[in-house]
UniProtKB/TrEMBL annotation:
Protein name: TetR/AcrR family transcriptional regulator
Source organism of the structure: Sorangium atrum
Record InterPro entries: BetI_C, Homeodomain-like_sf, HTH-type_TetR-like_transc_reg, HTH_TetR, Tet_transcr_reg_TetR-rel_C_sf
Key words, A-Z: DNA-binding, Repressor, Transcription, Transcription regulation
Any Pfam family the entry gives: TetR_N
Amino acid sequence: MRSAAAGGKTSSTELGAARRRDLLEAAYTLIAEKGLEGLRTRDIAARAGVNISTLHYYFGTKDELLAAIVTHVTDKFVEAQRRPAGQGAAGPADARAILRAHLESAWRTFQDNPHLAAVLQELSVRAQRDPAAQAALRAVHKEWNLAVEHLVRQGVRGGQLRSDLDPRSAARVVTSFIIGAMTQLGIDSEAFDFHLVSDELDRWLAPADGKRARSRG
């Protein structure tokens, strides 16, 4: 099959994917500006530079649009968080450094996407009464927590983290810290220094007196 690049043309599939992304980016920006309650499909279409029928072509129902928005928004965060977690292949001795990198990556992600904290909060509130949004966000949180839990377990076994940590609970502490920190800093950017607080979290996770804990095997 001849590729679009070879012919110097953009395929209809690529154009469709790009238009779909444009619509989701428009929705993302409008949610940040007006909240989910103020989100209107006509406004999304206008912001993306298309007519309303085009939006309905890509998203047949409002539930379908909402599910796509949840995926689009959470992907902005989750993809960035997968990268430092994936470095775990280097070995359990690196687990504490990877967790520190995970925290730093979260900070950079929110700094690079200034609307992200507000939009995620809007979606979280919506998920409390919308089953589709709830299911989508639950899946994202589950994947994220499992990735951090794996790192904590590696760190405990390798002696880089406290030997008495429960990996599941510690992972929830890490992810809850990131969510809570971004919520507070989204309201007041001077509430605290993210790096200083994340350093405290790192010290809490570390073996006593900075010594290597005995491996659990």
